[in-house]
Amino acid sequence: MHREDKSFCLFCDTKLSLKLSQFADFENMSEHHSPVRLSFGQLTFDSISHELSSATETLRLEPQSCQLLLLLIDAEQGQLSRTQITERLKISDSTLTKSLSSLRKAFAQLDPDTVYIETLPKVGYRLCQTLTPQVTAPAEPASAHQPSAVATVPPVQPAATPPAPQQNVSIKTTLLLAVLWTAPLLFFVLWFFITLAPAPEQLPTPYINPPVVISSEQGIEYDLSLSKDGATLVYLSRDPEKTQLLLQQNRTKPRLLAEDKALSGAAISPDGLQLLWVKQSSQRCIVEWLHLEKPQQRQTVAQCGTDAQVKIAWQNDSQGFYLRDRADNTQPYALSRYQFATATQAQVTRPLHAESPEGELAFAESDDGKTLAVVRDLPNQHSAVVLLDSSSFAVIKQKILPFRAGSIDWLANNLVLSNDAELLQYNTTTDELEFLFYTGRTVQSLAVVNQQIYYTDYAQDADIWQHDLNTDKARIRIGSSKVDRRPQVNHQGDLAFLSQRNGKEQIWLQPAGQNEYQLADLPGVPAVVRLQWSPDGESLIFSKDGALWQLIVASGQSRVLVAPDKQVDVANWMEDGSGIIYSSKQSGDWQLWQLDLATAVSTQLTRQGGYSGYLHGSVLYFTKYEQQGLFVLDPAQGEERLLIAGFDKNNGHSWRFADDSIYYYQPGQGIRQYQLLHKTDHLLLSTPQGFVSDYDVQNQQLFYVKAAMPKGDLYKLEPVTEKTK
Known about the structure:
Blueprint: H1 2-10, H2 24-27, E1 37-40, E2 43-46, E3 51-53, E4 58-60, H3 63-73, H4 82-89, H5 93-110, E5 117-120, E6 124-127, E7 131-134, H6 167-196, E8 212-215, E9 220-226, E10 232-238, E11 243-249, E12 255-259, E13 263-268, E14 274-280, E15 285-291, E16 294-303, E17 311-314, E18 320-325, E19 334-339, E20 344-347, E21 360-365, E22 371-378, E23 382-389, E24 395-401, E25 408-411, E26 414-419, E27 422-427, E28 433-438, E29 442-449, E30 452-458, E31 462-468, E32 473-478, E33 484-489, E34 495-499, E35 506-510, E36 517-521, E37 532-533, E38 539-544, E39 547-552, E40 557-562, E41 568-573, E42 579-584, E43 591-596, E44 601-604, E45 612-616, E46 619-624, E47 627-634, E48 639-644, E49 656-658, E50 661-666, E51 670-675, E52 680-686, E53 691-698, E54 701-707, E55 714-717
Antiparallel strand pairs: 1-2, 1-7, 2-3, 3-4, 5-6, 8-55, 9-10, 10-11, 11-12, 13-14, 14-15, 15-16, 17-18, 18-19, 19-20, 21-22, 22-23, 23-24, 25-26, 26-27, 27-28, 29-30, 30-55, 31-32, 31-54, 33-34, 34-35, 35-36, 37-38, 38-39, 39-40, 41-42, 42-43, 43-44, 45-46, 46-47, 47-48, 49-50, 50-51, 51-52, ...
Helix pairs in contact: 3-5
């Protein structure tokens, strides 16, 4: 029976979609056979272990992604609609979007040059690579001298029965001969119907054509913008030595407009005649305007924040521009509009921090100039598309997205959005969200002209370094091709950190003198968290989605210490391990609370603001969310005083208290040490090249994160036409 099944599957026509039902017998094979593995493209999928493998790498799929892949493999006519998938898997539409994204990322990581999941416009999805079963040869039976490595349950012995009559043997022989005679006929019938069966309807993805490389210089290209006719393209290019502003007209060689490390953003006007750029330093930030025919005659048109990621975009009529800015890093980003004719700047949006922690993420005005689309940050890694009337700024429509959208631009009456490495289309009339293209790397910016999508992508890795303060020598402690960050070291030298090696933030551990390994997945929605070791070095705490968690390292199990309704953010252990000092907004503003682990009771410590604190003896050392400086409070006396005036408020998550010293980062200088005993403050380490303000100090060893130079290129994506089909 098994031989016949294998012959049937090996002679299946590749035009037909392979069904899991065709492999049912394989998954129920005897103990001498291996489970079914499916090959498609350059990859292999093991439906038992849920592993997707290339020749050099193996990924274990998440349960939801694995179920989706199995469903696509077993799809009728090789395709499924979104409704069919959500109903069969009993999931929401947003969960389907996440599962599709996760599955596509797995395929792209293992085989970036091949498309595996095809979007059928108005139809659904299908696997677009030929499926082939793999079955290994039967295993040799274990001999009496070679016992099986896997213990098996002894089979149940049937009751004694009389010997079978001799005539049964002849019946079996007759049936076997019948099968052998009819097998060729059955194969011919199957071949006849398979070759005559029509192939599934070919409905190509609108942007299935490979992207065209526009620029691939060393470093990264970013912040691209286009004139309305697509003839003029402007973008920034940065490498370790310089930052350049480049202009390309009518596909000619790009020419240099400016070279200045202070340039942080630029945009060409829709009429292709004017230019705006942002110049930003630690001292000032300005937006300058110039005409391309007279580039030396510049004019400052707006001021901006020095610690903000300022973004600009032109109005459709080239008579003004939109500016994304914030007062300081404690406020969400808001949007304003500047009109050249009146030299006035009007507020467009005013997001509240409680409702939108970061505020406006991206924005673009429609081609007819009547509608302004704004992408707004929401809690739990969600975002919202808000459509505003460009004249009155009144809200026309709002759409909640189950992901944190990045860049945005208009494609006729629809919107093109980026979600990490995905490009999606949002139909503003029907509210439908449709997948367009997978770029393979995170999209940094995009612009759409005449259905052609231009985009810049980027990829970055970050390593964890260890600096010996006694010898003043540094070495890489953790290095990979992904982002490794947030190092935390216990007194035994065990290093815990966050890593994106599997496409999402996970907690990893490198015990002293050993190799690193994945310790645990983060609960809830994807996000970056802050870790801290317990004084005994046996557990980690972190805040996530408003809750305070404890992770037991030995078992890898987590538990909630403080419920999410308390809105916990920064948490630090007490020196004796009896409790935890954490910040919370449960009283309406950021204050510090003390959790007693024995009683699970929390007590409020501060009344005038507190964001990150350590309790040393009976004295509380702490920062405030919206105020510079490091403060000291004796809870018994109730009076606070300023200890370090120049303490930057951005240290909220990163400063450390250890060995009667305070370690903190001072922008423009480096990591400093304040010794409580001598009341001295000195520079410990100048800011390393590529330094990210993630660090820890333990036993005269300083651990910090260095990010490599981002890599990214500029591409053009053209829709499928009759000529390109």
